[in-house]
Each structure stands twice: as C-alpha cells, then as structure tokens.
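User: Could you walk me through two proteins back to back? I'd like the raw sequence and the structure tokens for each, with a short line separating them so I can tell where one ends and the next begins.

Assistant: Of course. Protein one, sequence then structure:
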Amino acid sequence: MTLGTSDVAEVENLLLFPGQTSKRGSFIMRVRPLLSAAALVCAGLLSPAIAPMASAAGTVQLRVANFNTYSSESLNNPYTVCMDGTSLTSVGVGLTTGPFEVTPGAHNLDLIGGLDQPCSASPDLSESITIPTDPASTLVIWKDTEQDVSVSTTVMTDDLSCLQPGQSRVITRNVATFYLEGLVHAIDYKNASTTFATGLAMGSQNTVGVPAGVYSAPQAYVAGTSTSVLTDVNLPATAGTVTVRTLFGGADGSVGSNTNVIQVGTCQAATTTTTTVAPTTTTVAPTTTVAPTTTVAPATAAPATAVAATPTY
C-alpha cells in the first residue's frame, strides 16, 4: 500500500498474471493466475480507501499511477515525478500515489528514472500537461506502443462523486498492448452479465455505475468480436466505492490488471423540513342587536287663538 501526502490513504493492489494467452508474431506466453481479488481481501490487501477529502479552494486532486512496463511481470521502471521543477512523488510500476492538491491548468512535467531523484537530473520525459478543472484526476504513466515511445502520460478524469445506496462505480483503463495476429487497437471488457467498456482504445477509459457485488472473471475481447485476448481476475465492486481496473503490459510479455479501490461514500438523501403552524383561533364577540329607535316628531303647538277682550264697565 502506498500513501499520499494528504489525509487520504489509498490502497493500490497489484493483481498480476491473470490467465491469458499473449501473442506477438510466433511468440506465445501463457500466464497463470497467482493472486485473486478474494485472496487479497482475505489477506487484508484489498480494502477500500478512506473517503476523499474536499480539495482546498482553487485546487483539485491529482493521483499518479505508473504502468510503464513491457510486461505485467516486469516492475522495474520506477519514476520520480517532478511538476514545475518540484518533486511531486516517486512511484513504482503497478502503484498509485496521492491524491495531491494541484492547481488546474498547464504544468511542466518531468519524469526522472528511479525513486527519490532530484528534479535537476536528466529526465526520461519532459512535456507540458494540462490538469483539468474536474475535482479529481489521475496522471497515468504508460507505454504507448502505437506511438512507439518509451514512456508516455495521459491525464484521466476520476469520477469520485457519491453513490446511491447499494451502488458502486467501475472505471476501466486500457493502457495495455494486446496482440492477435497484429496489434489490437480497441477492446470490449465484460463478463457474462455486465459490460464495463465497449470499444476501449489504448490510452482511454470508461466509467459505469453497477450494483455492488463481485463480478467474476471479466474478459477482454477484440472490440466487436467474441475473440478473447485476456481472462481477468474477479472484479470487486463494494457499495460506496469506486473500483479502478487498469489493464497494462503486453508490449513484450503478459498483460495484467491492477485494482485500486477508492471509498467515496453514499449520497445523503435530501432533507425536507416541514413546519407545522398551529391554527389561529379568532374569538369574535357576540353581536348585540339593538332595536331600532323610533323617532317621534316634535309636537307642534297649535297656534294661539286671539280672544277679544271683554270691556269692563
């Protein structure tokens, strides 16, 4: 297990030598399974990583995975990875380190042969790379036999978003060289029940959501055919985790696979807040009915009648 410099510890598990026939010209190599995912689980070597931490403002997570080898049986190409003149990590073949906090955008990358080398040493590869703005990605070091180069790199996005209960996610990466009467440029990766990738070209990946479980013996087929070029080991897909299955090697020897499990957790259900308002009681005073007032017209005094005065004698 290799730990990164952040608080996130990840498990890198090298599942090498699945049963396979590798064919290049007249060269045929048969490889037997030595380790299985179940055996590694029992040995405590295949356990999910701690849930990823949120990145600091303005940065994203970057992992570094080294799969630059001619054969999955040959693990002798370790690298010191320098970014912008500063050592980021050292990583052996078949291992993943990180995550590291980096700023998205363009960076100068130097790969220097050997572990813990100074960044001033002569690099095996010097190039400019672009880190995407996605929350997490992996810098994959591999051997691109289509371009006939000794070492190449590809930045691949990691979907580490939360998962629904009972669900898992599988990322399949093809950095292997498959031969079948010539170079196989793309593969389908699946088992009897589930397809993980279709038409997966060299140097590319595919991401699918799947129900949690153990998927037995997936195979790599020449794309669009029933011709198998690899029978792989079981693929574990635990609820709340992302399983990264990387196919590598094969340029001059066997193809193998690597399984890296990252814990991402389950999505939290949206919380609905219900506010209960007590009904307002309005007390209305009873209405008093008042009898109508009768208006009496004022009495009209009759006009006085003049009485003639009686003379007195």
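----
Protein two, same layout:
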Amino acid sequence: MSNLRLYADPAFLNRATAFQAIAACGLRPAPASRLGEARALAEARIGAGVAPLAALHRLRRLAPASILIFEERSGLTGVLGVLPLTAAGARALLAGALDLSAPRRDDIAPGFETADALYAMGIASATRDAARAVVSGVVRLRQAHAAIPFYARPVTGDGRRVLIERLRCVPMESGPLMVSPAVEMLGAAA
C-alpha cells in the first residue's frame, strides 16, 4: 500500500484509534514532572535551540498530548514533540514568527483533532528501541491527521532522512522547513 493510500485510510482518522496506535508504540503524554528530563534528552540529542522548560510546561497546558515520551528500564529514552497548530500558528510558523520560547494560545490548538496543521518541534531518542518508538509515533500521528499539512525543521541528518523517507516531507523553497502536504481524503465529497 502506498504512503498516500495509508495516510488516507479511514482506520487512522479516528482520534481514539490514533492514540491507541501511539500507545501501541509505547509512547504516552509526558507528565509535568518528566518535562525537565525530556528536555534534557532532546537537548543532548538535538543540541541548542530546544524550547525552555517553562515554555514546555505552557505547551503541555495548551495541548496536553503534544509532548510524548518513551521509557525503558533505564529511564526516559525517547521524546516526541508534535504541536497541533491553529491557522494563525501555521501562518506564524511559515513566516518564521512562531516563538516556541513564548507560545501564544492563539497559535496552538488544544488538541490534534482541532488542528489546522501539525509541527514536529522535536524528535529525540537515546536507544534503538526509543528511535523505533518515536519514529513510529510520528508516522502514526501523521497518518491520523493526513488531511492537514505536517511541518518539521530537521536539525540532524538522521532527522532529515526520517522526514523524507518515512513521512514523505519535501523541502520548502524558503528556509529550513520541510512539509508533508495535506492529502485529499479518499472518497471525500467534492
């Protein structure tokens, strides 16, 4: 089955199904008490530029499922941050004005089901199992919300490869953003 057909598969369109699929990957929403650890992992793997801890707490309050974690016996080994954006947030992102260090309520949708676009703000892992989990999780989120655009800004070669190969993202003409455009839903009314 092609990725476009998979993205448009109605089985992935139900929010509950999407979160069951994410849970099947071993991911769960990060509790507030784990955000510092999640941020430290992201900074260690991605480098400077990770949103400050206070901003992550605000993002979690605005969109509770936007920061997901993966844990193994050794502790927290994976983090996936995907923001549900409003139309204003998507415009701000494209204009280079989305400030994750001071997120605005008008830019962040309260949940994925109300989003106008998705933005992968961070994907980091410390082990192979965590890498599989976070990549599977972001793929499943993309599948569940194929009718809206998905944006990301890769900062590592591995991140760029995952975006191109697994999410079918393409570089945008201006700037470092990549996009996986919205997919017209199969069988949608004209």
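The chain has seven helices and seven strands.

Let me know if you want the two compared in more detail.
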